[in-house]
Amino acid sequence: MKRIFTGIILAIYSLANLNDTQAQDFEQVVNSGVADANTYLEHYMNPVATSIGNGLANGWYNTAKPHKTLGFDLTFNINMATIPDAAKTFEFVASEYDNISLADPSNTSLPTFVGSSTNQQLQISGEREIAAGQSVSYTENIGAPDGILGDLDYPGPLAIPTPTVQLGIGIVKSTDLIIRFTPEINVGDFSFQSFGFGVKHDFKQWIPGMKLLPFDLSGLIGFNRISTNYQIDESQGQFAEFGASATTIQAIISKKLLFFTPYAGLGVNIVRSNFAMKGDYEFSGGGESYTVTDPIDLTFDGSGGPRFTVGARVKILWVLALNVDYTIQKYNTLSVGMGLNIR
Question: In whole angstroms, what separates CA 84 from the centre of its chain?
């Protein structure tokens, strides 16, 4: 079981490792029933999925001005979507579960993946077969799964880094075609790949009288998706997969001042993430062993929303530029990038 839940962590980019007690706690949560386990894990993993999804929505631009035809830029960004302190815990709502309850109902706050350790106990209820056609009810107390990252010593705000590499090419009518692509990378049992595309267009040119104003104004639509896979036991067809996608729609304004270009953007994100464990897994509970097929299937929606970005780009050489911006959104995000720019 430890390998299964290590797979969960690898699939969402964490470098943390579960100890045997934590893995056992997760196994007992699954023993409560697939529906309850999925509900619990959606709450538990939501901050990480939200951080990655919001990070993917960033880094699409560092100016509102599109390239001239066949001009291009190649840009690398690191996006850090900060996880707020409020996301380190979630509220246990008893009505959401059939077989899980709290040993101490007066304390309904439980740690998420990014939270700290806890002494809270969960009660797992079920049926134990004692003879053919006969069973008795039972209740077991287990420790609620601890948070993984909350007890680590971080030098700054907690965030999941999301790197992006993209190529922007000027085509026609002051329009940029933007492509993000990472071919499948395999490291041991872990694989990663990403793909995205976007379009940035100068719409100031279509508004009478606006073309003469001393700033650039564009609209952008971008879509990005990443996929990860971790082989838990290839011979048994067991693997974990995590995917996240982000669609962003932006209005962008900028003003070039010699080698310095401040910019701002206003728009909306649509973010979606999913995590699943595929294959047949053997669990034990109530003194019995049983097999569950595809035990975990989680979907994280609702982590997008409105966003506002402010930032600046600085040309340090004729074709080399640095950019930094900050976005106020579901999880506020800092982006830092460097790129090769040929107008």
Answer: 14
From its phi and psi, is residue 173 left (phi > 0), alpha (psi between -120 and 50) or beta?
left
Domains of the chain: 2-342 (2.40.128)
Query: What residue type is assigned to position 261 of the chain?
Result: T
- 278-311 burial code (b ≥16 CB/10 A, e <16): bbebebebbeeeeebeebbebebeebbeebebeb
As a whole number of angstroms, the distance between CA 286 and CA 89 comes to 29
225 close to 35: Cβ distance less than 8 angstroms: no
CA–CA dist 242, 238 (Å, integer): 14
- Check pLDDT > 60 for residue 21: no
**CA neighbours within 13 Å on the CB side: how many for 319?**
8
Phi-psi region of 258 (alpha: psi -120 to 50; beta: other; left: phi over 0): left
Task: Please report the DSSP string for 39-103 in residue order.
Answer: HHHHHHHHHHHHHHHHHHT--S-S-SPPPPTT-EEEEEEEEEEEPPGGGGEEE--GGG-SSEEES
Of 263, 258, 342, 334, nearest in space to 55 by CA: 334
Phi then psi for 20, rounded to 5 degrees?
-60, -35
The structure's pTM equals 0.86
Helix 20-31 with 2-11: angle, nearest 10 deg: 90
Task: Give the pLDDT confidence of 60-90 residue by residue, as tens digits.
Answer: 999 999 999 999 999 999 999 999 989 999 9
For 104-129, the DSSP string reads STT--EEE-TTS-----EEEEEEEEE
Torsions phi, psi for 155 (to 5 deg): -75, -15
Q: Could you tell me whether strands 320-328 and 305-315 are parallel, antiparallel, or unpaired per DSSP bridges?
A: antiparallel
